[in-house]
Write a structure and sequence with these properties.
By secondary structure, this protein is an alpha+beta fold. It has 2 domains: about 5-230, Rossmann fold; about 240-370, OB fold (Dihydrolipoamide Acetyltransferase, E2P). It is built from 8 helices and 19 strands. It is elongated and about 75 Å long. The protein starts with a strand and ends in a 17-residue tail after the last strand. The structure holds adenosine-5'-diphosphate and magnesium ion.
């Protein structure tokens, strides 16, 4: 078992607060991803869990034991970083064996653990090579192997794939996700790449400026972002944001007026927002459909200035109400590079609304795309 619990964790360098009030529960076997822009505090948080960075305040527990002051070496964690830090003069076999020799295991036991890790990571054929005879992806697998051999309770990864080219990143992403399934360990993984977060995590923790913005499953964060920041950060291409105003509201719905004077009722609760106040309408590029005069649908005229064909999808880039818009086209009848005006529709239940401060308004009904 390996549960990790953070209670009111803080980090300051001198008077500069880097992380504030971090409360988080990580259950045994979870794959948790810390995601956020560069400088949001992801690495610092991970390094505090790993014992590489002092904790300025709050309590860190592993399996219900307070470990704030415990040495990194005693926490039984396996760490993998962006830089592989393999010993260049040792073979892959000796690199893998190194932590076990340090732990004074017997020769046979070491050989068997090295063999198991190599088999798991499919690097058996590389055991006699030196790191410089390996590709980037192979080196990173060896680095993961070196973390695995000690059978740690929890794995900590800090952007382990950042140095790899795109294709390799995708392969390694799948490998690490598979590894998690095979080992069943708790894993905490830091990345600035929301696609990695979405594809690998059971639970995503979105960090911004040293605070947790939202914690949830990939599905939750995509369909029910708590803030405009999360809505914009998760999902690619990014969610579109259009200024609007609250026109009227009832218990379960809000009527919003767009800049062209048109208005629509959306199944979103306006809460404390009063008519006349500004809101931001959020629409995912993938939620545009062909207009079909469904009652209540929101039709948006887009001045398209660029069309991108990806094969499986066509994206339209342009503007509406003076804002940039990206829409996945419901048809592929547009010619690459061509422009023109197009009307696209959005189902009211697919719309998101945010207050001026960027908080999402809640809804009784899940978005259509939710189910
Ligand atoms: N040793 C340090 N001294 C002072 N500030 C630091 C130190 N390490 C990191 N920081 C600051 O802490 C913030 C968070 O950094 P970091 O955890 O590395 O972010 P991330 O991993 O999300 O990019 C950044 O503003 C960074 O400049
Ligand atoms: Mg970092």
């Amino acid at each position: 078992m390996a549960e990790v619990r953070l209670e009111g964790i803080r980090k300051a360098y001198g008077t500069v607060e880097i992380l504030n009030d971090i409360d988080l529960e990580i259950a045994h076997g979870e794959f948790v991803v810390f995601v956020g822009p560069s400088g949001s505090g992801k690495s610092t948080l991970l390094r505090m869990i790993g014992g590489l960075e002092k904790i300025s305040g709050g309590t860190l527990k592993i399996d219900n034991r307070v470990v704030n002051l415990m040495d990194a070496a005693d926490r039984n964690l396996g760490m993998v970083f962006q830089s592989y830090a393999l010993y260049p003069h040792l073979t892959v076999r000796d690199n893998l064996a190194f932590p076990l020799r340090m732990a004074k295991l017997g020769k046979n036991q070491i050989a068997s653990k090295v063999h198991d890790a190599a088999a798991l990571l499919q690097i058996e054929h590389l055991l006699d090579r030196k790191p410089k005879q390996l590709s980037g992806g192979q080196r990173q697998r060896v680095a993961i192997g070196r973390a695995i051999v000690r059978e740690p309770k929890v794995f900590l990864f800090d952007e382990p794939l950042s140095n790899l080219d795109t294709e390799l990143r995708v392969q390694m992403r799948v490998q690490i996700a598979k590894l998690h399934r095979q080992l069943g360990n708790t894993m905490i993984y830091v990345t600035h790449d929301q696609v990695e977060a979405m594809t690998m995590a059971n639970k995503i923790v979105v960090l911004k400026d040293g605070r947790i913005e939202q914690v949830g499953s990939p599905h939750d964060l995509y369909h029910r972002p708590a803030t405009q920041f999360v809505a914009g950060f998760i999902g690619s291409p990014r969610m579109n944001f259009l200024p609007c105003k609250l026109k009227a509201k009832d218990e379960a719905r809000a009527e919003v007026a767009l800049r062209d004077g048109s208005s629509r009722w959306l199944p979103v609760q306006a809460g404390a927002v009063e008519p006349g106040q500004a809101l931001t309408l959020g629409i995912r590029p993938d939620d545009f459909v062909a207009p079909s005069e469904r009652p209540g649908e929101l039709v948006i005229e887009i001045d398209v200035d660029f069309v991108e064909h990806l094969g499986s999808a066509t994206y339209l880039y342009g503007a509406a109400f003076g804002e940039h818009i990206v829409a996945r086209s419901p048809t592929d009848h547009f010619h690459a590079g061509s422009g023109g005006r197009v009307s696209l529709a959005v189902t009211p239940s697919d719309c998101h609304l945010f207050t001026e401060k960027g908080k999402a308004l809640s809804r009784l009904e899940a978005p259509r795309s939710w189910s």
